[in-house]
Design a protein that fits this description.
6-stranded mixed sheet; about 300 residues; about 20% strand; alpha/beta; single chain
């Protein structure tokens, strides 16, 4: 049987394809990094810790390689409920089944949470240390010294300073990753950017807007469930529920005279229309579901692995 490349021709003998885990403590820019690498927004971002809660795959295909990036939740050390145990299990399971690991740290900062993640790094998989947010570091000599200190802590195959936000050194990082991917035929089609469904992406977009508009006022134990997803031609009708722990949290999300919920809905709909390339009708409700984050059965029903 003849292997077929993304462009429809025979796969070159040196075509590479593999899975790359992106790991690090919360808020080091893992999701932004993946979105920039693949050139599309498939993993949500916000300043709030624990934004990413699922194993998100982002796919980039070139003439020479297919990169299957796996964005993981930030490894959690502060809470021990069922949700965080599930998130941490996702991180550790991912690290055992990839070809390359990107260990992302914030330039100039390396604390106990980073050390916890470093302990999880496999010894039999190539690990690239990614120093993100270099645009915040003015003293490049200090950055070099920081990189040298970290190089003593693990046998990294490469250290690449980047700024995902500024798209600085993304090509260099991709080139470094490509060197260590196995020679394989592509797993996904050329135009694929993720393995996640539109229904899943819709729920993530709404959750991102909740975090962006409510911020630190709302505890991290809130989530979004898509109760109905219908498509009529190019129009998508989406009915979503934001689940919160208490009535007071519900009021926070709705806002005065419903203003905050309206802003969440408007921006979520606009993002969906850009991603799905078509019109979207979106309705959102806010519901109180106490204790869901520490209930294994509910976690599974809400899509947590």
């Amino acid at each position: 049987m003849t292997d077929i490349s993304p462009s429809g021709s025979d796969v070159k003998n040196d075509f590479r394809c593999g899975y790359i885990a992106i790991v690090g403590r919360p808020n080091v820019g893992k999701s932004t990094l993946m979105n920039v690498l693949i050139g599309a927004k498939v993993s949500i971002t916000s300043r709030k810790a624990q934004t990413t809660r699922h194993r998100i795959i982002g796919i980039q295909t070139t003439d020479k390689a297919q990169f299957v990036y796996v964005d993981t939740p930030g490894f959690q050390t502060r809470h021990s409920n069922a949700l965080n145990k599930t998130l941490n299990r996702t991180v550790t399971n991912t690290l055992t089944s990839v070809d390359v690991v990107l260990f992302v740290v914030e330039s100039g900062t390396f604390g106990d949470a980073d050390k916890q993640v470093m302990k999880l790094l496999p010894t039999n998989v190539p690990v690239i240390l990614v120093l993100n947010k270099t645009d915040r570091i003015k003293d490049k000599a200090a950055l070099m010294n920081f990189a040298q200190q970290l190089s003593l802590l693990h046998d990294f195959i490469a250290i690449v300073p980047v700024s995902a936000k500024q798209r600085f050194q993304m090509d260099r990082l991709q080139d470094e990753v490509e060197k260590h991917l196995p020679v394989n035929a592509p797993v996904f089609d050329e135009d694929d950017i993720t393995d996640r469904s539109e229904k899943f992406l819709a729920s993530e977009i709404v959750r991102e807007k909740v975090f962006r508009f409510v911020g630190d006022e709302l505890p991290y134990t809130s989530t979004v469930v898509i109760e109905k997803f219908e498509q009529e031609g190019n129009l998508r009708r989406i009915f979503a529920a934001i689940l919160v722990e208490r009535d007071g949290h519900k009021a926070m999300v709705i806002g005065q005279k419903g203003a905050r919920l309206k802003d969440i809905s408007t921006q979520a709909r606009q993002d969906m229309e850009r991603l799905f390339d078509g019109p979207v009708y979106l309705e959102i409700w806010v519901k109180v579901k106490s204790g869901w984050a520490d209930n294994e059965a509910r976690l599974r029903s809400y899509g947590y692995e």
